[in-house]
Design goal:
By secondary structure, the protein is α+β, with helices and mostly antiparallel strands. The chain has 29 helices and 13 strands.
Length: 708
């Protein structure tokens, strides 16, 4: 019956509903069938093309901010994660404040429950060890899969069995109930500041290296954002100031698999495993976890290079949450970044102060304390505030006495102000706690060599370099180890020079200067024509007697102006110098004693303006031997004008070629190559030394290269 009725409705008079259907498509037997097949295809193509062009427009005209969409999705994930942590907090089995894989292992009986750790001060808190990790990597993959499934079941059960909770309220309450204070340092810091209480300005007078062979300098010493370069007093073979971009030392290649210096494959693998297991620092306290989404949003701006926006965001967070250590640390980082962008010392000082503020807040995670103080010390050194940096490093050592890396940094801090005695004590303490610490060994060896304890220094320098520890693969230590071996008559020296060359620290085995401009012509000996300074050479040779006579007059009447060489370059003998220009600066008092000589030189800015050299008289007495050594930079050439030369017994070697001086003649060599001097005559030798810029340096480089 129903089917007949239905049939009649289809074939008879159409109902209103049927009419509507016919209008939009029609029945099979209707006169009009609505869209034909071709019409339907046409509309389908129109709609498809509209979709394609809409997609193109969205991408081409950036109608949708995909990064914003991803950021919101990420924030949602973080918020969900925090909600889950709030619900699962009751299952925290290991006392770390949240529910994680370790807690699941305890609940499943795969690990013993640990006693929840009580809040501790940074002094007693466990320090981060690179080799630690929160899981065991030796488990097999199959076991991991089974464990993962069991953990998922625990998570599922927990999510469906716990009542809703407010994670923010819980965490805030936890913060209030768990005091975590930095130990009072006021008395300690006041005492320390009293002991190192001098002005902290770039160019501390203590940082005046006397000798490249014996003085330790960090690459970043006295680098700030000011236009002018701070120049410290140095003599012939110093290594003191970091090169600018145009003179970076050759980059070292990756020799992590090199076993030339005693590292076995197994030891290399062990170090790699330790690096893999390095623990990620924990920077958030319980309260900061509740505002993690806001912190992440501000940090994202900083990492994207939107520094001003990031700084505003972190400042807003600091104003809203003044007790948030992570927000204040983010503010310090943003100020730090902005200082670099603006090249502003004032902004950098603000960042330094903010890093210090982080540590003064309550409930600061120990990892955040370490990062803040380390960066504060680093930035203080950048500005040349060595004593302020020393105070900061002392704080770190006091807060984390078991962390030898901070003691190592403190030792460097002492070396940077020339306090080798205290540096030595620090490294002795480190080596008593960690006898195999390579960083401490190379620095301790360096100090011993500075004390002229050559034989004692060698094993420390050698074992430190062989360790491959971070901070040991440095050209200075290859330089000093090779030099020590040379002085002991050990030909192994050249093995280490070769290795230093292979690792990119030296331009060649013979040319071992550490501060170089790449691409300059390098050869031990030069002719006047090759230098392009023929007028200077002609003037020196033409007026050599005038220069000689003024020098002899000073020797006769003002012997005190000739100062003994004090760079520890002599094996034996008597060698003194009388300096007229140094680092491009004229010594007015000295020139009063030799006025004609100084007037003669004023015409040659390639010499008087060479801020990486000197102009001086040099007298050497019989029985003197100068150890093989190299100058600090390839940016200069050295001219020797013979004034009083004995007939026999005086010679100089540069690289593998020996030469002798002649009265009235100029010898020219590149002192960045190894050179050595013998004076075996029966009377003194007097020469006049003039350093000039390397002829291939541009005018811009001559103006901007920092002084040495």
């Amino acid at each position: 019956m129903a089917s007949r009725k239905s049939s009649r409705a289809a074939g008879g008079s159409p109902s209103p509903g049927s009419k509507r259907e016919t209008k939009h498509g029609g029945g099979k037997n209707g006169k009009k069938e609505g869209f034909s097949g071709s019409s339907f295809f046409t509309w389908f193509m129109v709609i498809a093309l509209l979709g394609v062009w809409t997609s193109v427009a969205v991408v081409w005209f950036e109608l949708v901010d995909y990064e914003e969409v991803l950021a919101k999705a990420k924030d949602f994930r973080y918020n969900l994660s925090e909600v889950l942590q709030g619900k699962l907090g009751i299952y925290d089995a290991d006392g770390d404040g949240d529910f994680d894989v370790e807690d699941a292992k305890v609940l499943l009986g795969l690990k013993e429950r640990s006693v929840p750790a009580q809040p501790t001060s940074p002094e007693s808190e466990e320090t981060v060890q690179p080799a630690e990790k929160s899981y065991v990597e030796s488990e097999h993959k199959t076991d991991d899969v089974e464990l993962e499934e069991e953990i998922q079941s625990v998570l599922h059960e927990a999510l469906h069995s716990q009542p809703d909770a407010d994670p923010v309220a819980d965490d805030v309450e936890a913060v209030e109930s768990e005091p975590y204070e930095i130990p009072a340092l006021d008395e300690y810091v006041a005492d320390l500041e009293e002991r190192v209480s001098d002005s902290d300005t770039p160019g501390d007078p203590e940082v005046m290296p006397e000798d490249a062979m014996e003085h330790y300098t960090e690459d970043r010493v006295h680098e700030d954002y000011s236009e002018g370069q701070v120049e410290s007093k140095q003599t012939e073979d110093d290594v003191a100031i970091e090169p600018e971009e145009s003179e970076k030392p050759v980059k070292a290649e990756d020799y992590s698999n090199d076993v030339q210096v005693g590292k076995s494959d197994k030891e290399t693998e062990d170090k790699t495993e330790k690096a893999k297991k390095k623990k990620k620092p924990k920077l958030l306290n319980k309260f900061d976890k509740t505002i993690k989404a806001e912190l992440d949003a501000a940090e994202k701006l900083r990492k994207k290079g939107k520094i001003e926006e990031a700084l505003r965001a972190f400042e807003a967070l600091v104003n809203q949450y003044p007790q948030s250590p992570r927000a204040r640390y983010g503010k310090a980082q943003s100020e730090d970044d902005l200082a670099e962008k603006m090249r502003s010392n004032e902004m950098l000082l603000q960042a330094i102060n903010t890093y210090d503020e982080v540590v003064s807040l309550p409930n600061v995670p120990s990892d955040l304390i370490k990062l803040s103080l380390k960066r504060e010390a680093d930035r203080q050194q950048f500005l040349g505030r060595m004593r302020g940096s020393l105070v900061t490093l002392q704080k770190l050592v006091q807060l984390f006495p078991d962390d030898t890396s901070f003691k190592n940094d403190l030792g460097v801090g002492y070396l940077l102000i020339g306090d080798n005695s205290n540096a030595k004590k620090v490294y002795e303490e480190v080596l008593s706690l960690a006898p195999n610490d390579g960083f401490a060994k190379v620095h301790y060896g360096f100090i011993l060599k500075a004390e002229n304890k050559i034989a004692e220094s060698i094993p420390y320098l050698q074992e430190g370099l062989e360790s491959g520890d971070p901070g040991t693969d440095d050209g200075r230590f290859y330089f000093h180890l090779g030099d020590a071996l040379q002085r002991m008559g050990d030909k192994e020296a050249y093995k280490w020079y070769e290795l230093g060359y292979q690792r990119g620290h030296f331009a060649s085995v013979w040319q071992r200067s550490l501060y170089n401009v790449k691409g300059l012509k390098a050869q031990p000996w030069w002719t006047a024509r090759e230098t392009g300074y023929t007028e200077l050479v002609k003037s020196l040779e033409k007026n050599w007697k005038l220069i000689r006579d003024e020098g002899l007059a000073v020797m006769d009447k003002k012997r005190s102006l000739f100062l003994p060489e004090d760079e520890n370059l002599r094996e034996k003998g008597d060698w003194s110098q009388f300096t007229l220009w140094q680092q491009g600066r004229k010594n007015e008092n000295a020139c009063k004693s030799v006025p004609k000589t100084c007037a003669l030189l004023e015409r040659f800015p390639e010499a008087t303006g060479c801020r990486r050299g000197q102009i001086k008289y040099s007298i050497m007495h019989p029985g003197t031997h100068v150890w093989p050594h190299t100058g600090p930079t390839n940016c200069r050439l050295r001219m020797h004008l013979g004034l009083v030369i004995p007939k026999e017994g005086c010679r100089i070697r540069c690289a593998q070629d020996n030469r002798a001086w002649e009265e009235g003649k100029v010898l020219i060599f590149d002192d960045s190559f190894e050179h050595e001097v013998w004076q075996d005559a029966d009377s003194y030798r007097l020469i006049f030394i003039v350093d000039v810029w390397h002829p291939e340096l541009t005018a811009q480089q001559r103006r901007t290269l920092p002084a040495i």
